[in-house]
Amino acid sequence: MKELLKLQQQLVPDLLDAMERRYFVLRSIRLTEPVGRRPLAQMLDMTERVLRGEVEFLKDRHLIDFQPAGMRLTSDGRKLLAKLEDLMKEIIGIHKAEKQLSEHLGIAETIIVPGDSDKMPLIKDEIGKACARRLAALLDEKNTITVTGGTTMGSVAKALMDINVAGKEMLFVPARGGVGGKVSDQANSICAAMAENTGGTHRVLYVPDEVSDELRSILLKEPSINNTLSLIRSADIVLHGIGEAMKMAERRNTDEESMDKIMKGQAVGEAFGYYFDLDGNIVHKVSTIGLQLKDLPRFKHVIAAAGGKSKAKAIRSYMKNAPKSTVLVTDEGAAAEILKEE
């Protein structure tokens, strides 16, 4: 396949350019349907005249429909797009970038989805779908999966609705207590959604994300909390996001002294309550009940998901502490920014 692509690039370069252009038109319609020509042209940074020619071509081949509300993919269009995905990753160099990024970060595997979720928020749903597919491939007959909160994990939960996990027993357990922000983005809520969307079960961890030493000693005496912590420690798979340091500190309503420490330490990334500088040094740690950084190497599988160019520094900083077995699911925006430092 690689040799054929090289030959095509030499002999008929316009063919691959047209294929790539039409692939992105189809993919963008699927992400935003129903969508009109003008917003689609802006999204693709394409003139309306050029886009008009492309969508007419796709319509003539019954790959898209024009409707009053906007353009939609036909069933044939969806099937073709699914078949094109792996080939297009080869053509636009994503497979090569995945290998480079894994080697650069020193982790087992990287999965990159086309696009930048900073520019097109719906790309986060594509990260969620890729993460859900990778999770499904790792499942055994019985599985305990511990999950953090965050919007990316929420996208994974939504994507699991369309993943076939028939015959798999799945128990979802929150990796941590509650962080500030929307209830739907909390680990407890996401575990509940994942269980509902897969026919699995879930447990709850009703504790704050940050606790004092005195409160910690009291809470750890509660049997229900200890049972959940035992499930977290014995999980088969860890599924987690990576946050930007300042955004996470603000979401936690971090006190002035700790915020000053985070800022002076030039923290850029956060995961599991740990704040990291660009070199991966821990500049601050939140006192929490739940999964700890030192626990990660003991797990069979660890999947981290985060995307967008703005998350590049956060991903780099955390990955200097991540177990070598980590699978990173990200997008082109973050991947290209991280690889710039090579």
UniProtKB/TrEMBL annotation:
Gene3D superfamilies: 3.40.50.1360, Winged helix-like DNA-binding domain superfamily/Winged helix DNA-binding domain. Keywords: DNA-binding, Transcription, Transcription regulation. It comes from the Bacteria. InterPro entries: CggR_N (IPR048715), NagB/RpiA_transferase-like (IPR037171), SorC_transcr_regulators (IPR051054), Sugar-bd_dom_put (IPR007324), WH-like_DNA-bd_sf (IPR036388), WH_DNA-bd_sf (IPR036390). Transmembrane segments: none annotated. This is Uncharacterized protein. Residues 90-340 form the Sugar-binding domain.
